[in-house]
Amino acid sequence: MHAWPASEVPALPGKGRDLRIHDTATGGRVTLAPGPVARIYVCGITPYDATHMGHAATYNAFDLVQRVWLDTKRQVHYVQNVTDVDDPLLERALRDGVDWVGLAERETALFREDMTALRMLPPQHYVGAVEAIPGIVPLVERLRDSGAAYELDGDVYFSVEADPHFGQVSHYDTELMRHLSAERGGDPDRPGKKNPLDPMLWMAAREGEPSWDGGSLGRGRPGWHIECVAIALDHLGMGFDVQGGGSDLIFPHHEMGASHAQALTGEFPMAKAYVHAGMVALDGEKMSKSKGNLVFVSKLRRDGVDPAAIRLALLSHRYRDDWEWTDQILETAVERLDRWRAAVSRPDGPSADALVEELREALSDDLDTPTALAAVDRWAALQTAEGGSDDSAPGLVSRAVDALLGVAL
What we know:
- By secondary structure, this protein is of the alpha/beta class.
- The chain has 2 domains: about 20-285, Rossmann fold, CATH 3.40.50; about 305-405, Four Helix Bundle (Hemerythrin (Met), subunit A), CATH 1.20.120.640.
- About 45% of the residues lie in helices and about 15% in strands.
- Strand 3 (about 35-40), helix 1 and strand 4 (about 75-80) form a beta-alpha-beta unit.
- Helix 11 (about 355-365) packs antiparallel against helix 12 (about 370-385).
- It starts with 18 loop residues before the first strand and ends with a helix.
């Protein structure tokens, strides 16, 4: 599976700062100081509907992580998956009377278009769950053969008791875990499971549903969590720098994925930091496909909204915060974009060297984008009110805003 084209990231004078970011597993900030190559895995879409603002906010957060790393002169090895076979996708295809493969391909293509328009840096490896199945089957077999998994009526379940570190990503209590498992694709009430929280690794073939050769597992398809584990271990190995996604993935997805990987390898932790973006709401409820309360990136683009303004709307909120999308937020972003573009269109202006360092400091401080935007606002206001004599300043501001915030002026 191919990703989307990369936009050029301008080089800035000097060098950026190491990123201090909130780690869900420890509950506090950690300083990420990767080697020459920083490694990040971000969970991708289930392609049964178009990219909404909640998706965009999540991928924007991890795009910023990459930009901070690039500014420290590191390379970035970024991996993202596509859950291109899953119950929600199959249910939507059945509802709409369309082929599930065609639906997944269509929505994945639209996602690529949205990411390109928003100038999100693409992953080096963009991997669909279906294409990963040949690598998933041996992992499930290893877990089963080692006693970390067991069969139940042809299905294979992971035993959470097999990982002594289970629970150390979310730190949720058992009651909350059970509630979230039922709400987010698990089956805690299924009779015969060793532990209600045990997640499925391999689902035996069901009539009318797609299935693949699972070797000694029989025909079927993989569970949700093992897909990401197989892709991450294949391309990044254990102990990579950041596991990212929305906060709704903390449990069960990232908790279970960590346990799968740790049981497979005997190493801990799977990732050095678990980083989660907040949820975006509309009309008081979390924006989600199941509720249908969505603002689509593609719809805004069709309506003529500049993707740079959409990105500025996302940047106006701290990545970890839950917030609510409103028309006013977009209007404010459009006005800000106009001010910034007017400010950099002049042949000279106030020195921008200090602004570059302000942006670096704000972003290294747990991706503090509101502070970063305020710094550019101050420079633009000074440019409008007083101007300046530095003929390199407007160009430097344009390059810095592009390189660090992903906004093309």
